[in-house]
């Protein structure tokens, strides 16, 4: 299992498009959830922040091993997500990865994670 928390800077001038992107993902949440099994994604959250007047988006995820990459997905919502990603994320700014130290979850959650999608 891997846990990630990574921050990406939004391209200057693409802030409104990034907000629209997040609104689409929020509105189509059930479609997003339907894509998680193929990625072996147990949990995914997106956070919005501002630093020195710039917009940033951060992804927190807990994922099982051998999940399929979002880029290989045939789901319409994943294709929309990737289009916005390429339009809005500033790849000239190196992503900021936070180092996972420890997680605290109730036993029933850990059992569900351990069980995975294949059971």
Which band does the percent of strand residues land in? Answer: 25-35%
SSE sequence, one letter per element: EHHHEEHEH
Residue share in helix: 25-40%
What is the class in the CATH system?
A: Alpha Beta
Across the major sheet, the strand order is 2-3-1-4
Number of helices: 5
Largest sheet, in brief, is: 4 strands, antiparallel
Radius of gyration: 15 Å
Overall mean pLDDT: 92
Report the CATH architecture: 2-Layer Sandwich
The secondary-structure class comes to: alpha+beta
Q: Name the shape in a single word.
A: globular
Oligomerization state: single chain
Give me the count of strands.
Answer: 4
Low-confidence stretches: none
Terminus-to-terminus distance: 16 Å
User: What is the CATH topology?
Assistant: Alpha-Beta Plaits
Work out the count of structural domains: 1
How do the helices and strands line up, and which of them pair or pack?
Layout (H helix, E strand, L loop, with lengths): L1 E8 L5 H13 L1 H6 L1 H4 L1 E11 L2 E10 L12 H13 L7 E3 L8 H9 L4
Antiparallel strand pairs: 1-3, 1-4, 2-3
Helix pairs in contact: 1-4
Entry summary:
The chain has 119 residues and is α+β, with helices and mostly antiparallel strands. The protein has helices spanning 15-27, 29-34, 36-39, 76-88, 107-115; strands at 2-9, 41-51, 54-63, 96-98.
Key traits:
Alpha-Beta Plaits; 4-stranded antiparallel sheet; 5 helices; 119 residues; alpha+beta
Descriptive notes:
It is built from 5 helices and 4 strands. A 4-stranded antiparallel sheet has the order 2-3-1-4. The protein has helices at residues 15-27, 29-34, 36-39, 76-88, 107-115, and strands spanning 2-9, 41-51, 54-63, 96-98. A hairpin with a 2-residue loop joins β2 and β3 (54-63). The model has no long low-confidence stretch (mean pLDDT 92). The two termini are 16 Å apart. 38% of the residues lie in helices and 27% in strands. By secondary structure, the chain is an alpha+beta fold. The chain has a single domain (2-115), classed as Alpha-Beta Plaits, CATH 3.30.70.100.
């Amino acid at each position: 299992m891997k846990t990630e928390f990574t921050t990406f800077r939004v391209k200057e001038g693409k802030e409104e498009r990034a907000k629209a992107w997040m609104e689409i993902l929020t509105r189509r949440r059930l479609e997003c959830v339907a894509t998680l099994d193929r990625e072996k994604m147990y949990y995914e959250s997106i956070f919005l922040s501002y630093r020195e007047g710039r917009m940033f988006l951060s992804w927190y995820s807990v994922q099982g091993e051998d999940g399929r990459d979002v880029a290989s997905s045939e789901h319409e919502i994943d294709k929309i997500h990737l289009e916005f990603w390429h339009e809005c994320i500033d790849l000239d700014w190196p992503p900021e990865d936070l180092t996972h130290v420890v997680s605290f979850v109730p036993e029933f959650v850990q059992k569900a994670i351990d069980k995975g999608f294949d059971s």
